[in-house]
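Private note to self, pasted from the team thread so I don't lose it. C-alpha cells:
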C-alpha cells in the first residue's frame, strides 16, 4: 500500500562505470562519458585515473592518481552499487593499466576498452611503457576493444593505409584477446567506415564524412555509447550500430569552443 505524500519507488536505470581521465574542457574523458550515458538513459559512475589540464587547443598538463586511489574508487562503486557494463579510457601508466585489468577480471559485466594513446590534438595520454600491459593484461578483459588506426599501429605494428587493411588490423587486435574488435577507420579518406568482428562474423559500419572539424571526444563518446547499449541488454552488434548512429549525430552537431577543436554535441538529440 502506498503512503500518502511519499513518491513511489522507481526502478534504477542500468549502471555503467567509466574508468578514465578527467578532461577539464568537458569534451572528452570522464566528462564526455557521463554526458553520453545520461543521453542514452543509463546511470553513469566514474573512476578517475588522471587529471588533465585540457582545452580546445590541447593538453597543458596531466597528473596520474595513485593506484590505490583508482582501486578504492572502483571497489567503492562496484561493491555497493554494482555495474552492468564498464568502459575504460585513459589509463596512462603501466601500474594503472595492470591494476584496472585485475579489477576488471573479477567483475561480471561486459567491458568496453578504448585503448587511448593520444589526444585529438596529438598529446600523449599513455606512457610507452604501458603498451605491454595494455596488450597482455587489459585487452584480454575486453568484450569489445575500440582502437583507432594510430592505436592499432602502436599496439600491433599493423599500419592501415586503406579500407582493405582493416581486416588485417582487426585480426591483429583480436590476437591480443578481446572478444570483439571495432577498428575505427575515421582517419581514412572517404566515408567514415569501421569494421566490427569477432573473427568469425564481420560487420561494416559506414557513415558519411561530415564537414565539421569539431570532433573532440569522438572515441570516448563511441565507447561509452557501446557500454550503455550493452548495459541496457543489447548484444554487441546492436550496441555498436546504435553507438555509431549516436556518434554520427554528435559529430554532425559538434560546435566551436575556444580557439581550437570543439567537442561533439552529446545532447544533440534533445536540442
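Design output:
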Amino acid at each position: 500500500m502506498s503512503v500518502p505524500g511519499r513518491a513511489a519507488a522507481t526502478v534504477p536505470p542500468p549502471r555503467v562505470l567509466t574508468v578514465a581521465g578527467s578532461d577539464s574542457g568537458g569534451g572528452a574523458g570522464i566528462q564526455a562519458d557521463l554526458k553520453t550515458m545520461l543521453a542514452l538513459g543509463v546511470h553513469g559512475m566514474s573512476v578517475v585515473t588522471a587529471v588533465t589540464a585540457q582545452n580546445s587547443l590541447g593538453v597543458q598538463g596531466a597528473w596520474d592518481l595513485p593506484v590505490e586511489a583508482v582501486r578504492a574508487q572502483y571497489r567503492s562503486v562496484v561493491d555497493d552499487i554494482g555495474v552492468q557494463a564498464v568502459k575504460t579510457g585513459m589509463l596512462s601508466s603501466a601500474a594503472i593499466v595492470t591494476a584496472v585489468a585485475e579489477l576488471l577480471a573479477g567483475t561480471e559485466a561486459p567491458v568496453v576498452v578504448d585503448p587511448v594513446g593520444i589526444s585529438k590534438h596529438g598529446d600523449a595520454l599513455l606512457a610507452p611503457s604501458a603498451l605491454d600491459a595494455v596488450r597482455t593484461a587489459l585487452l584480454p578483459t575486453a568484450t569489445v576493444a575500440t582502437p583507432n588506426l594510430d592505436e592499432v599501429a602502436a599496439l600491433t605494428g599493423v599500419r592501415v593505409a586503406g579500407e582493405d587493411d582493416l581486416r588485417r588490423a582487426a585480426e591483429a587486435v583480436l590476437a591480443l584477446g578481446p572478444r570483439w574488435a571495432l577498428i575505427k577507420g575515421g582517419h581514412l579518406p572517404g566515408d567514415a567506415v569501421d569494421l566490427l568482428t569477432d573473427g568469425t562474423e564481420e560487420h561494416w559500419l559506414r557513415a558519411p564524412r561530415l564537414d565539421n572539424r569539431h570532433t573532440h571526444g569522438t572515441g570516448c563518446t563511441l565507447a561509452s555509447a557501446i557500454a550503455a547499449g550493452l548495459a541496457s541488454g543489447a548484444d554487441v552488434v546492436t550496441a555498436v550500430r546504435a553507438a555509431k548512429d549516436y556518434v554520427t549525430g554528435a559529430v554532425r552537431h559538434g560546435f566551436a569552443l575556444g580557439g581550437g577543436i570543439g567537442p561533439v554535441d552529446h545532447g544533440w538529440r534533445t536540442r
